[in-house]
Amino acid sequence: MARKHDSSLSRYIALILRHQPELAGITIDSHGWAKVTDLIDGINKTRPLDLETLRGIVADDRKGRYSFSDDGEYIRANQGHSIPVDVGLTEQEPPETLYHGTCADSVPSIKEKGLLPMTRLYVHLSKDFHTALITGRRKGDHRHPFVFRVNAGEMFRDGHKFFLSANGVWQVKHVPPQYLEEESKNRDAEE
Asked: Which of 83, 87, 101, 109 is in the most buried spot, having the most CB atoms within 10 Å?
């Protein structure tokens, strides 16, 4: 298991590999890969990192955020990029239902415009309610997360393209409002 002090380092690595490679002075190729030695050298300018610690962070990350290349020379984030990269996602048929967690403050805008990728390349969807609920808690008021049910099967049959990342996160460019249901209200009524 990764040491507790590695969680802030893991978030920093995600920031670099997904959004700001310039923080470590590294280059990310068109498929999201960065040279492992460059990443370690770049991070070492501001905080300590060695290969063993990096391997531990990748191996122990419960969300599977990172992958090493087969030869171990390169690393990338599996999804969540705001910089234009192609991580080799292939179109896949989604399950009938997926979920999206957010904060309650975002609900009116989402009902009007649907789910938009905002600063990322794709909208991220979860395969289960619980994961979406956790995501919603991270996005705002921890006491009032909100979960939408996404009628993914219907969207797919209507021509929308879905992709599944290496770590099991479903992705789509946009979820129009007609494919959304208020799952949080349904769950509240059941409990």
From this structure: 101
